[in-house]
Amino acid sequence: MQHQPQGDSLPKNPRAFGALPPDTTQQTLAIVMGGGAGTRLFPLTKDRAKPAVPLGGKYRIVDIPISNCLNSGLRSIYVLTQFNTMSLHRHIQASYKFDNFSRSFVDILAAQQTPAGSQWYQGTADAVRQNMRYFLEPPFDYYLVLSGDQLYRMDFREILQQHIELGADITLATKPVARRYVSEFGIMQSGADRRITRFVEKPTDEAILQEMKMSRELLGAIGSNEDEELFQASMGIYVFNREVLIQSLQNDLFDFGKHIIPLSIKDRHVSAFIFKGYWEDIGTIRAFYEANLDLTDVVPEYSFFEPESPIYTHPRFLPGSKINGATLRQAIISDGCIISDAHLERCVVGIRSVIQSGATIRNSIVMGADYFELGQTDSSQLPIGIGRNCVIDRAIIDKNARIADGVVITPEGKPPNLDADNYFIRDGIVVIPKNAVVPAGFWI
Fold it and tell me: Residue 105 above 80 pLDDT?
């Protein structure tokens, strides 16, 4: 069943938040950053914005932060966009509709020319700065800034509660990570009182790492083993007080993580909200691929099967999938698919996918199609979908791809990164781009 928010009928989290004033969520504006070019996710971002990339068969990446907001009682949401925005705009407009008697909204703010300036967004802070006149019109007290390319489930009422209780000016969500991951993140240092005293971007120096690791006292306070070696990685999730946000952007600095936060630590109360749940930055092809295939595990770390906090998306009203004698093992099959006598193992199959008899697909993502063309295909044109007797392994097949009979797609024996006419290899994964045509017998 696909979910769509209607009015104020969303499920309420049963946990109590006694210290959080009941109207705090109404006084909070959520801002989802969706404007980057998404070069690390190319070629999936060749024709679409990064937050519009399909996820888990039937969702889009942007559904994650928006659904987390809605499930947390936050109903005032802006999505900032500027790159390949058409499909993202169409998805948001079709997915998030509220009734006329609700003040709830999910609105899009695209980069635009104004008398104040004509530049594209230069970074996360600059994107917020360029739209401040819209953010300040209603009397919001708190601003929640979110990334548009992460997979996680968080109740934002908890970070708001800590922010208020500690009297913080800015609160950052941080994730405890092991030493082998620290070179990928900005690392924060805080005491047991959660106040951040230091920030280092992607540290590698051994002396700095020794100083930055979480103290035994802090590890004990969050319920971790006090002997673990963990570091606080920034998750790119921020809560600002209204006046603090205004003052923090009265400059020409471009980015929250690289510029605003390190500067604020010196003279403001910047607090760390330590999050111990599942969280994955899916900004690269490898991370995106693994996050999708992890969903096929018998008990996945992240699950869409959460009745109290569902992920909302576009309700498409598709028919149930039709399986004609296929062999399936650890596969997610989305709506409207037709699969005939194929073998699928550890696969995510997107909406309207057509997979012909004899096809073998392993460790792959098939994103499906934007439309049905059954009985409408020109005899000279390949049909959308996977042809007969194809073998596909460790691949991402983007939407509307036409794979002819007898095609073999595998990264075996090829360099980890390669650009070709109708396919790409990124991080050892073959990516067939959207609308690509692969002729019969072709061997990748």
Answer: yes
State residue 204's pLDDT score. Answer: 85
CB 349 within 8 A of CB 293: no
Q: What is the pTM of this model?
A: 0.91
* Rounded CA separation 331/346 (Å): 5
Tokens matching residue 165: 């209780």
Q: What is the pLDDT of residue 117?
A: 60
Rounded to whole angstroms, the Cα distance separating 372 from 31 reads: 35
Q: pLDDT digit string (tens) for 156-191?
A: 999 999 999 999 999 999 999 999 999 889 999 999
Q: What's the Cα-to-Cα distance from 268 to each of 136, 284, 302, rounded to whole Å? A: 21, 33, 35
Residues 186, 257 contacting (CB under 8 angstroms): yes
Question: What is the Cα–Cα distance from 56 to 365, expressed in whole angstroms?
Answer: 9
Could you give the domains of the chain?
A: 25-294 (3.90.550.10), 322-438 (2.160.10.10)
**Separation of first and last alpha carbons in the chain:** 36
Residue 169 CA to residue 191 CA, distance in Å, equals 17
Structure tokens at 168: 């913080």
Amino acid at position 24, single letter? T
Residue 78 has pLDDT above 90, yes or no: yes
Closest alpha carbon to 299 in 335, 330, 339: 330
108 beta partners:
79
**Of 340, 410, 327, 396, nearest to 368 (Cα)?**
396
